[in-house]
TrEMBL record:
It is a multi-pass membrane protein. GO terms for molecular function: symporter activity. Belongs to the major facilitator superfamily. Phosphate:H(+) symporter (TC 2.A.1.9) family. Residues 1-21 are annotated as: Disordered. It holds the Pfam family Sugar_tr. Its main location: membrane. It is found in: Membrane. This is Major facilitator superfamily (MFS) profile domain-containing protein. The chain crosses the membrane at residues 53-83, 95-112, 124-142, 148-169, 181-198, 210-233, 335-358, 364-387, 394-420, 457-479. It comes from Solanum bulbocastanum.
Length: 519
C-alpha cells in the first residue's frame, strides 16, 4: 500500500516515480538537514526564553523606581491638601517636598557598600522594606513632625533603590540590549509619576484630611510586588564572580545570554576584570585619589547625573500646578488634570528612547534631548514673563512644559542612568554609581527646596530662564565629556576611558544627530 509508485533501481535503491534517490549519502544529508533544523529550532527557543527572562528581571528590578516616581507625582497634588489639613507654611512645603531627595543621599551612599556586601538583589529588597515603613508612617501622620519622619525613612529607601536598579540590570543584560533594558528604571519612574498624577485626580474629591493620606498610602503597593520578585530574579553574575562563586555566575549567564560561547566569553571578561582590580586598595581610596581614566569616568558619571536634575525636571514635575497657575489656570481640578497631561507626555516619549538607544546610541539621544529641553525651558520662561494670563498663555505653558518633559524622557532621563551603570570598573561600579546617584539626589533636593523661594524672588518665568541657560551648558558637557558606549561590553567600556581621544568624543559627534533624525 504505502509502496505505490516506488520502484527499485538497478543499484538496489528506491526511487519515487522513476526519479532515483541517488546514493545513501543523500539520506545522510537529509538526516543532517533535519538535525540542523532541530538545532536552529532549539536556538530560537533559547533566544526567546532568554529575552523573556532578562526582560522579566529588568521589570522586577525596576519596581523600586515606581516608588520614586509615584512620590514625585503624588506630592505635587498631595501638598495642596497637606497644607490645608496641617496648616503648614510655604517654607515647610519646600522642606517636605525637597527633603526626600536630600535624605536619599544616605541611601545612595550606603547602597554601594551594602550591595557589595549582601548582593544587588537583596539590596533592592532592603530598599523596599525601608520605603514601606516610611510610607506607612506618612499615611497615619497626625502632625508635620511625624510626616517628616516618614518622609525621611522613605527617602533613605528610595536612595537605595534608585542607585542599585540600573547597576543590577546592566550587570545581567546582554551587550546588544543593555541600553534598552537599563532604561527600564527611568520608564518606571515615569510610570510612577503618571500614577501619582492620576491618584491626585482620583482622590481629590475626598476631604482634605483623608485625601492626601489615601494618595500616599497607595504608594505602598509596588513594594509588595518587589518582595515576590526577590524569589524570581537571580543575583548579578558580576557580583557572584567578585565573591568567587564562579559556577553560580555561569548558571546566571546561561540564562541571560543566547549561546554558550557568549557565556564563556562574558565569564572570562568578568573574571579578568575582577582579577585585575587592586584588591589591596580600599574602594573609597581609589575614588578619592582616582587614576586619570577613573577621573574621566567620575566626571562623566557624576556630571551627567547632576545635569539631569539642575535643569529643573523635578521642579517642573513637583510644582507643575504652580506653573500652570502662573499661566492662568485657577480651578484646582483643572490644575490637576493639566498635570496628568505632563505625566502622559513624560511616560509616552521614553518609549522612543527605549527603541533607539541601542540602535543610534547614547550620545545622539543626549544631543536631541538637551537641545530640545533648552528650547522648551526658554519657551516656558518667555511665555510666563511676557504674555498676559489667558487661554493662549495657558496653551503655550502646557505645550512647552509637556515638550520639556518629553525631550527629557527621550534622552537625558534614561541615558543618564544607563551611562552611570556601565562606565565604571566592576570592583568600583556599585559605589561609584552610588556617588552619581548622590549628585543626582542632591541637585534634585536643592532645586525642589528652593523653587518656590526663587520663583517668588524672580518670578516663575525668570526661574525657567535660568533653567534654560543651565540646559544649554549640558549640551556642551555632552560634547566634551560623554563618549559613545553603544554595542560594547562593560569590560570594553572600561578600556574606552583609557583612551583620552575617544573619551573626548572621537567616536560620536553632533553630526550623528542627522542619523537619528533620519530614523
Amino acid at each position: 500500500m504505502g509502496m505505490a509508485g516506488v520502484q527499485e533501481n538497478g543499484h538496489g535503491e528506491m526511487g519515487l516515480s522513476d526519479f532515483p534517490l541517488g546514493s545513501k549519502n543523500k539520506y545522510k544529508r537529509m538526516d543532517s538537514e533535519f538535525t540542523d533544523d532541530d538545532d536552529q529550532y532549539q536556538l530560537e527557543r533559547r533566544k526567546k526564553s532568554t529575552r523573556k527572562y532578562v526582560f522579566g528581571c529588568a521589570v522586577f528590578a525596576s519596581l523600586n523606581n515606581v516608588l520614586l516616581g509615584y512620590d514625585v507625582g503624588v506630592m505635587s497634588g498631595a501638598i495642596l491638601f497637606i497644607q490645608q489639613d496641617l496648616k503648614i507654611t510655604e517654607v515647610q512645603q519646600e522642606v517636605l517636598v525637597g527633603v526626600l531627595s536630600i535624605i536619599s543621599l544616605i541611601g545612595s551612599i550606603a547602597g554601594g557598600r551594602t550591595s557589595d556586601a549582601i548582593g544587588r538583589k537583596w539590596t533592592m529588597g532592603f530598599a523596599a522594606v525601608i520605603f514601606q515603613i516610611g510610607a506607612a508612617v506618612m499615611t497615619i501622620a497626625p502632625s508635620f513632625e511625624i510626616l517628616m519622619v516618614g518622609r525621611i525613612l522613605a527617602g533613605v529607601g528610595i536612595g537605595f533603590g534608585v542607585m542599585i536598579a540600573p547597576v543590577y540590570i546592566a550587570e545581567i543584560s546582554p551587550t546588544i540590549a543593555r541600553g534598552s533594558l537599563t532604561s527600564f528604571p527611568e520608564i518606571f519612574i515615569n510610570l510612577g509619576i503618571l500614577l501619582g498624577y492620576v491618584s491626585n485626580y482620583a482622590f481629590s474629591g475626598l476631604s482634605a484630611h483623608i485625601s492626601w493620606r489615601v494618595m500616599l498610602a497607595v504608594g505602598i503597593l509596588p513594594s509588595v510586588f518587589i518582595g515576590v520578585a526577590l524569589f524570581i530574579i537571580p543575583e548579578s553574575p558580576r557580583w557572584l564572580v567578585l565573591q568567587n562563586r564562579v559556577e553560580e555566575a555561569r548558571l546566571v549567564l546561561m540564562k541571560t545570554n543566547e549561546n554558550n560561547s557568549e557565556v564563556e566569553e562574558r565569564l572570562a571578561e568578568i573574571q579578568q576584570a575582577a582579577g585585575t582590580a587592586d584588591t589591596d586598595k580600599p574602594v573609597w581610596r581609589e575614588l578619592l585619589s582616582p587614576s586619570p581614566a577613573l577621573r574621566r569616568m567620575l566626571i562623566t558619571g557624576i556630571g551627567i547625573q547632576c545635569f539631569q536634575q539642575i535643569t529643573g525636571i523635578d521642579a517642573t514635575v513637583y510644582y507643575s500646578p504652580a506653573i500652570f497657575k502662573a499661566a492662568g489656570i485657577e480651578d484646582e481640578s483643572k490644575l490637576l488634570a493639566a498635570t496628568v497631561a505632563v505625566g502622559v507626555s513624560k511616560t509616552a516619549f521614553i518609549l522612543i528612547a527605549i527603541i533607539l538607544i541601542d540602535k543610534v546610541g547614547r550620545k545622539p539621544l543626549l544631543y536631541v534631548s538637551t537641545i530640545g529641553m533648552t528650547t522648551c525651558l526658554l519657551g516656558v520662561g518667555i511665555t510666563l514673563l511676557l504674555m498676559k494670563e489667558g487661554s493662549i498663555s495657558i496653551a503655550l505653558a502646557i505645550l512647552f512644559v509637556c515638550g520639556n518633559v518629553a525631550f527629557f524622557s527621550v534622552g537625558i532621563g534614561p541615558v543618564c542612568w544607563v551611562l552611570t551603570s556601565e562606565i565604571f570598573p566592576l570592583r568600583l561600579r556599585a559605589q561609584a554609581s552610588g556617588l552619581g546617584a548622590v549628585g543626582n539626589r542632591m541637585c534634585s533636593g536643592l532645586v525642589a527646596m528652593s523653587f518656590l523661594s526663587v520663583s517668588r524672588a524672580i518670578t516663575v518665568g525668570g526661574t525657567f530662564l535660568i533653567f534654560s541657560v543651565i540646559s544649554a551648558l549640558s549640551v556642551a558637557f555632552v560634547y566634551k565629556h560623554v563618549p559613545e558606549t553603544k554595542g560594547k561590553s562593560l569590560e570594553q567600556i572600561e578600556l574606552l576611558f583609557q583612551d583620552e581621544y575617544t573619551f573626548q568624543g572621537g567616536e560620536v559627534q553632533l553630526g550623528d544627530v542627522e542619523h537619528l533624525v533620519q530614523k
